[in-house]
Amino acid sequence: MTYSTDRIEALLNEGVRDKVYPGAVWAVGDATGTRAQGATGVLDPNEPNVPMQADTVFDAASLTKILAVWASIGTLWEEGKLDLDTPLGAFWSEVDGHPLRAVTTRQLLTHTAGVPLRAQLKNLYGTDPQDIRDGVLHEALHRPPGEAVEYTDRAALILGYLAEYLSGRRLDQLATERTWQPLGMHSTRFGPLPAEITTRCAPTELDQDTDTHLKGVAHDFSARLLGGVCGIAGAFTVLDDLAVFLRYLLDTSTSHGQAGFGPDWTRQSLTVQTGTLEPVRGLFWHPAPGTRPTDNIWVHYGFTGTGMWISPHQGRWAVLLTNKLYYTRDRQPLTDVRNTFRALAFV
């Protein structure tokens, strides 16, 4: 197994020079461990003498959907507490009598549920967490379930609420107890982060209210509105924790502990679940752009500049963590870097 380490380093160094991101941390590996890794750039351009490090803490953004929600839903499914194809209204009292009652868990996981495309939580429901929960769970559908694949943050928010309902635990507690602690992901947690951890956290976007870059506090507004914990975003993580997580997905025997979900959940999630609908989706994961179905390379991204890839067929995984949001919301420069990085990691 070979990796184009020199070309990966050159690619990511170029991204720093072009101000795609202040810095990046990356790794590639297989079920047995990390085969190559590196860090480039700086943590914060305002402190040019502080380099990006392998243990830098990143705002995971939508990787939260995998690390917390997908893993927790998988745990509940494995325990027999959840059938993916039973309409929610049949067992969830909070949605019974409302449009969401007809939607299934599988449709939420494949972004085919027809729920509204934008969160807009504060504008629609105010700032009280219970009012927001009620509003989201009682909202009208955007289109009939199963009609189209449309990515929406609300799917993860609803699934986070569902996991809390079925487990009787808050999402952060459930994810920590059933996934992060058993796998030894000791640096993965929901924010806001304590001061001693914030110092090694990569800053993200400029906060207009304080005129400082967000650091140790979730960039995602919905997560901040809900106190830092929600299905959309809010988790912080480090490279080594993601490596442990992805290794477990390839081979559960690599871990000293057992997460609540196992290989059956991973296998089902990393196969096409959307039938003839486009774009193709698994369960929250989707095929990496520019790859063929036979390549079997799946990915999930985070808006702050994070991403992780996995291929059960090739027995490989890859992680690229950046704080590209420090500079811009423009997606294209990082999209080009991500696609090239994936091509080099999965030769």
UniProtKB/TrEMBL annotation:
Coiled coil: none annotated. It comes from the Bacteria. Residues 9-334 form the Beta-lactamase-related domain. Signal peptide: none annotated. Keywords: Carboxypeptidase, Hydrolase, Protease. SUPFAM superfamilies: beta-lactamase/transpeptidase-like. One of its GO terms (molecular function) is carboxypeptidase activity. The keyword Protease applies. This is D-alanyl-D-alanine carboxypeptidase. It comes from Streptomyces poonensis.
